């Protein structure tokens, strides 16, 4: 009997055993919070241990410091899953995880990603704060006027994906040999590099890689900006973003191409059918959780329950969250809350529950 009756119409379970030792490198502004939520829920359903940050690190592994095992909250059981923000350190992570661990991550088209970073971290990065009127065009006209490699939160300003993956954000543009070598390192470690613009197609590849069921990858989008917070980009602005973040652009173009090779190997028609099944299951989940209607997305300030409010970096940037209707049943409420729970709230909850289980044994 399935634990989650909301998704009873999903296909039968995959006959292969599910992979449960997983590292997801959570990158910035790439829809990675939605994937993290998926992994948190999977861990709870299957009684797995998630490596979580020490309290001194907050809800991230002391980012932007390079990952160290000392950043992990000590627990009796070895971890099955790592999914919180870190700056990737291959050897430190591998020392913590079993040899059969599967690694994956996600990238986003560099222009839209940088616009999101500029908006989201505008008040937190020294470089972005120096820009007159917070103008993206002004920054791109002369990035080096504002950027200092060692400045506060400089990792959000230049080649952020590269930095998250453990690479040099100040990689010298035009050094193709170093770029190729870095891509080869990433490809050697990560079995799948998902592409944010093709999120559902990425989930199909992930499902096959991990031998998971459809219900394991159904999701509700989290940590999105309100439409008013987003800006459209001209081709000229996009080109300048690519030039400034040239290593990120190199990464994205390489792994976007390899992503489509993987989809073709699986069969594009087969992928399209699975995407349709994901979206059908998602619609059923949304309607079950939100009283027979699609949810009304609300900015954090409009959400009554404090623990369901996503973190907003400033008053200028609205982040969308959800609230459940009051007439939802108890079992459905318990399930649905997990789908919409913000990252910080869920991280705190998981740590509390895992420590409680340790004390009871």
User: What structural class do helix, strand and pairing data support?
Assistant: alpha/beta
**Poorly predicted tracts of residues:** 1-13
Share of residues in helices:
40-55%
Please tally the β strands and state the result: 7
Biggest beta sheet summary:
5 strands, parallel
**What's the structural domain tally?**
1
- State the end-to-end CA separation: 27 Å
Strand proportion: 5-15%
CATH architecture: 3-Layer(aba) Sandwich
Order of helices and strands: EHEEHEHHHHHHEHHHHEEHH
Rough outline: globular
What fold name stands as the CATH topology? Rossmann fold
Q: Which value, in Å, is the CA radius of gyration?
A: 20 Å
Protein name: Galactose-3-O-sulfotransferase 3-like
Organism: Nothobranchius furzeri (Turquoise killifish)
Keywords: Glycoprotein, Golgi apparatus, Membrane, Signal-anchor, Transferase, Transmembrane, Transmembrane helix
Pfam families: Gal-3-0_sulfotr
Write structural notes for this entry.
The protein is of the alpha/beta class. It has a single domain (5-13, 22-360), classed as Rossmann fold (3-Layer(aba) Sandwich), CATH 3.40.50. 44% of the residues lie in helices and 6% in strands. The chain is built from 14 helices and 7 strands. Strands 2-3-1-4-5 form a 5-stranded parallel sheet. Helix 3 crosses helix 10. It starts with 21 loop residues before the first strand and ends with a helix. Residues 1-13 have low confidence and may be disordered.
């Amino acid at each position: 009997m399935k634990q989650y009756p909301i998704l009873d119409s999903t296909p039968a379970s995959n006959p292969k055993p599910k992979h449960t030792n997983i590292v997801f490198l959570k990158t910035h502004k790439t829809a990675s919070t939605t994937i993290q939520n998926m992994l948190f829920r999977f861990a709870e359903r299957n009684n797995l241990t998630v490596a979580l940050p020490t309290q001194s690190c907050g809800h991230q592994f002391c980012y932007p410091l390079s990952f160290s095992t000392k950043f992990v909250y000590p627990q009796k059981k070895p971890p099955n899953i790592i999914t919180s923000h870190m700056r990737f350190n291959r050897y430190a992570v591998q020392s913590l995880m079993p040899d059969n661990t599967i690694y994956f991550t996600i990238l986003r088209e560099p222009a839209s990603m940088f616009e999101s970073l500029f908006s989201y971290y505008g008040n937190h990065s020294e470089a972005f704060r120096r820009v007159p009127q917070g103008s993206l065009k002004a920054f791109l006209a002369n990035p080096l006027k504002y950027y200092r490699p060692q400045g506060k939160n400089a990792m959000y300003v230049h080649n952020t994906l590269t930095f998250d993956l453990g690479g040099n954000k100040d990689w010298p543009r035009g050094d193709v040999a170093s770029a190729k070598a870095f891509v080869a390192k990433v490809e050697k470690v990560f079995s799948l590099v998902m592409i944010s613009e093709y999120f559902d197609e990425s989930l199909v590849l992930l499902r096959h890689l991990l031998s998971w069921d459809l219900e394991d990858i159904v999701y509700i989008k989290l940590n999105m900006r309100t439409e008013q917070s987003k800006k459209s980009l001209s081709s000229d602005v996009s080109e300048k973003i690519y030039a400034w973040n040239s290593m990120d652009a190199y990464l994205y173009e390489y792994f976007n191409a390899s992503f489509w090779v993987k989809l073709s190997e699986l069969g594009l028609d087969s992928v399209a059918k699975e995407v349709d099944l994901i979206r059908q299951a998602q619609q059923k989940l949304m309607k079950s959780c939100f009283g027979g209607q699609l949810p009304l997305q609300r900015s954090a300030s409009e959400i009554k329950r404090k623990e369901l409010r996503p973190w907003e970096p400033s008053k200028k940037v609205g982040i969308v969250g959800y609230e459940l209707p009051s007439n939802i049943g108890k079992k459905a409420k318990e399930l649905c809350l997990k789908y919409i729970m913000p990252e910080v709230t869920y991280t705190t909850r998981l740590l509390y529950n895992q420590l409680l289980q340790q004390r009871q044994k």
